[in-house]
Amino acid sequence: MRVESFLRRAPSKSVSEDAIVLNEKINVYGVFDGATPLTSFQDEQGMNGAYLAANIFKDYFTTRYPENLPLIEGVAVANRLLKAHMEKYKINQEKYVHLWSTCAAIIKFEKDGMVSFAQLGDCMIVAEYQNGMIKVLTRDTVKDIGYRARVWREELRKQGVHIPDEEYFQDRKRQLCFNRTLANKPFGYSVANGSEEVAHFIQHGQVRGSELKAILLLSDGLFHPNFSLVETFKKIRNANVSDYVLDLEGHEIKNQLRSDDKAGIMIRI
């Protein structure tokens, strides 16, 4: 296998809230994207909840993940470690806005020739098969969350729940605070945030390694506003992750678009 990886923080941040795992010893690879916090918490090193969540997952799958443990169970264990870290710092886990959280996309090349995958949120996995077919293996559960949040607010109002009118939610931070309440709910989105519900929302599966030609893991910072994920895969495959990022960053600057942390792993088999 040839493994290419890329990790870069956004210009607006002091550290990257994305993280990657390249555990070649047991053939586990992962991309993690911490959700930018809505509170001011920092640990002794000045790190926020997004950085900590992504790196708790990174550290677990780099140094502590047992090779014989199914990948989906590994995600559940890492999520419990995240909960334990929040308890250590006395984070109020009853309030969604205080939770540290991270999206995740992880793959494992099994000894029986299968490739297992597990995913949460909008970190994504795209595979190219030997027959030339390119398939997105995971669903972006964060996509259109703003629309679904508005629909849910309207439903709550119909039920008699006091919810401010939509003018109130024109403020970006208020939108995000409400969106966090939809974490790991059927009409919301999936994310590792220490809650027990996470285990019910992990997308997972297996593909035959012999059928694969390449596989890409990426955080949403690598999404191009003009390309589908299949098109993005082709552009990275035909060059490399670094060249693709240079083009994407040029597009972001030219069009005055917000630039996010960027993380990606391309594995050519």
Q: How are the SSEs placed, and which strands pair?
A:
Blueprint: E1 2-8, E2 18-23, E3 28-34, H1 49-64, H2 71-88, E4 102-109, E5 114-120, E6 124-129, E7 134-136, H3 145-158, H4 172-180, E8 203-208, E9 212-218, H5 229-238, H6 241-254, E10 262-268
Antiparallel strand pairs: 1-10, 2-3, 3-4, 4-5, 5-8, 6-7, 6-9, 9-10
Helix pairs in contact: 1-2, 5-6
Structure summary:
The chain has 269 residues and is α+β, with helices and mostly antiparallel strands. Helix content is 30%, strand content 24%.
Judged by helices, strands and strand pairing, the structural class is alpha+beta
Give the oligomeric state of the chains in this entry, treating copies of one chain as homo and distinct chains as hetero.
single chain
- The shape is globular
Gap from first CA to last CA: 5 Å
The number of helical runs is 6
Highlighted features:
alpha+beta, 269 residues, 2 domains, 6 helices
Commentary on this structure:
This protein has 269 residues and is an alpha+beta fold. The chain has two domains: 2-142 and 189-268, PPM-type phosphatase domain (Phosphatase 2c, domain 1), CATH 3.60.40; 144-188, no CATH class. It has helices at residues 49-64, 71-88, 145-158, 172-180, 229-238, 241-254; strands spanning 2-8, 18-23, 28-34, 102-109, 114-120, 124-129, 134-136, 203-208, 212-218, 262-268. The strands form two sheets. Strands 1-10-9-6-7 form a five-stranded antiparallel β-sheet, covered by helices on one side. Helix 1 packs across helix 2. The longest helix has 18 residues, at 71-88. It starts with a strand and ends with a strand. The relative contact order is 0.19. The mean pLDDT is 97.
